[in-house]
Amino acid sequence: MITITDQAKFKAKDFFNYLNKQLTQAIKKARGNDLPVKIAAGTTYQQRNVKAEITEYEFGKKYVSIFKSAKLDVKIAYYLEDNERGCQITFKEDVLSFDEKKHSNLGTWFYNWQLKQGAKKQLKQMKNNVLAYAK
Known about the structure:
Elements: E1 2-8, H1 12-31, E2 44-47, E3 50-58, E4 62-68, E5 73-83, E6 86-95, H2 105-134
Antiparallel strand pairs: 1-6, 2-3, 3-4, 4-5, 5-6
């Protein structure tokens, strides 16, 4: 599992407003209808071959989801806390289907390093998207 903490120049509500919009669009598209969507723990949907389930959700505080495909199970989480400069975001990603016992220490280290680089890029992109949306 990797964890990244970063400071953002927006408030947690801005992040969750953007996230809710993105999730609502994705869920409506996946379900093939325009019915109202409630973003909450227990909400499930499927995009292509990936099943998604929101496992924890509290507006302005946390969002946790598990994504499952034939080859990979990934858990992602965002935890936010407002402060005087905006909000602090803690992003966690855990590849549940990766078994460290089946790999060498060097292999595991390299895998985690790659995962962390991808997570940093993903968090930066999310922050940029929220900033653009909030303006």
